[in-house]
Every structure is written in structure tokens, then in C-alpha cells.
Amino acid sequence: MDTAPLRVVGFPYPPFMAPDERGKPAGPMVALVAEAFRRMGQSASIELLPLPRALLQVETGEAVAMFTVKKTPEREAKYLFSSEPVLFQEYVIFVASDSTLAFRGDLNALAMASIGVVGGTSYGAIFDAAARQGTFKKLEMSSSHEANFRKLLANRMDAVVCSRAVGVEILRQLQATRRVKISGPPIETTQSHVMFNKAAATPQLVARFDMAVRAMRREGLVGGQRALRRHD
Fold first, then answer.
1. Which of 133, 8, 36, 122 is nearest to 76 (CA)?
2. What is the pTM of this model?
3. For FRET with 176, which of 3, 5, 50, 99 sits at 20 to 30 Å CA-CA?
4. Which of 51, 31, 34, 30 shows the shortest CA–CA distance to 42?
5. Is the dihedral of CA 94, 98, 99, 102 positive or negative?
6. What pLDDT, in 10s, does the model give residues 59-109?
């Protein structure tokens, strides 16, 4: 095994990754990434940081890699990505239980709704493209998904866009599952990857990571949200 540990960062994103009762990184994504590096024979030090800090550290090279991250053209121009996805998620629209706001698959119907999003987060190609095109007139930026749900619960916004599993878990933690509902079908099922700093990681390292993940997928150890649907 390579002796020098690679610094790898993630961010709190329950139920996929969050600090445990001792403050240590835990969750299925932490376990998956740790196991992939173990199979590679490469030691890795994993830490969960606030999302903006994690992004900054992989940008500066203080961290070699970050998980889990969606590919975008802007990111692919700057970073190396695992070709193998490590997480699959359905992105949906959450609204208050008594809301009359109805999403039926057409994002234009949400043009005048105040929608909570998190800065620096991709919500998949479909939602991101609509946002760039100016479809949404009232996007409200927050620092976390939890902050958005708290605003929704306080009637300070009309809707929140979020991963189904993450939203369900946050509402469970807030003891508010009966106060919020999902409106309409998923916007998109997205794939997330591990993102590597180009100066700190080689294409060969990324290829070895992909080989490890492919082997784990064959063994049924990689499933993302599809393995977590019991939380819904």
C-alpha cells in the first residue's frame, strides 16, 4: 500500500455522508470511497467539511479529491473526474403539505415561485440549464439544504429543490415529514462522481479508482439512492 495518505474531502450530506456521534466521517459514501482507495492499495485521509470549504480545498490542491460531485462543463475543464459514478439521485421539488404549487414536469411552471437552492451546488443538467436561461425569477440562495427546508417550514419560500433521499432525511431530523410533500415527478436522476485536482492526481490514479469502483459495482456495493430508497 502507498504510504503517503491522499487527503480526500466530502461534505455533510445525510443520509449519504455525515459525522457520526464521535464526529468521524460516516455514511455509505464515506465507506464506498474509503473501500475504493483501500482496494487500490492507496491510503487516504477522509474529512467532511462545509461545502464551500471542500470545494476550495480541492481547487487549491490542499485536498487531492472531493466526493460526491456532479460533472458540469465548467468543472470538467478544471478537474479530473472518475468515469464511474458513485451516487445516483432523484432531484425533486418539495413544497409545504398545504401548498397548491403543482409541478408536473414543466419547470416553466415554477418561474414565479421562490425556490431554495444551495450555492455552488449542481442540481443536474436539466435544472441547471433552466436556471442559466433565466427560467426561475426567484431563486433564493442558502448555505445548506437544511437552511432551505427551515425557510420552507417557516413559509419564507414556496419550494425547495433537493435530492429526494437527502430531503427526506433532513425533514426526518427536523421532525417535519408531515409538513412537507413532494410535488410531481423527479426533475432528473443524476449521477455524482469523485472529482480530482489535476495537479495533485494523475489520470492513472483516477483510472485505478474507476477499476476499484467497477469491481465494487459488480459485487453490488455501489447503488447510491437506489440502495437507500427504504428511507423514502
1. 122
2. 0.83
3. 50
4. 34
5. positive
6. 999 999 999 999 989 999 999 999 999 999 999 999 999 999 999 999 999
